[in-house]
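Consider the tokenized backbone below.
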């Protein structure tokens, strides 16, 4: 019961933080980033729980979890770089005036 309560609180905290970020910045950019952060955090949380209690890993072994964590980090990094580049004019080349 305590584990379920902690997991629910963890997810709610991430959703609230994601909503606060959405209000503070651009909606489309922050929806993508908040979703990737929540998915990445959920993968890490599940991996931690399974390592801590020695439960069987999905698809046999923790290699899949390691791959998921790395891929989640790459997706998060690409989302930050790509979407920030689209939104922030300082990262784009200025147009030449004729």
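A designed sequence for it:
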């Amino acid at each position: 019961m305590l584990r379920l309560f902690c997991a629910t609180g963890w997810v709610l905290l991430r959703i609230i933080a994601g909503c606060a970020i959405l209000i503070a910045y651009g909606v489309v950019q922050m929806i993508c980033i908040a979703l990737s952060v929540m998915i990445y955090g959920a993968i890490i949380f599940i991996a931690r729980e399974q390592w801590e209690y020695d439960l069987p890993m999905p698809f046999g072994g923790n290699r899949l979890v390691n791959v998921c964590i790395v891929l989640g980090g790459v997706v998060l990094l690409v989302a930050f770089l790509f979407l920030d580049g689209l939104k922030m004019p300082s990262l784009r080349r200025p147009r030449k005036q004729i």
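Residues 2-89 form one domain.
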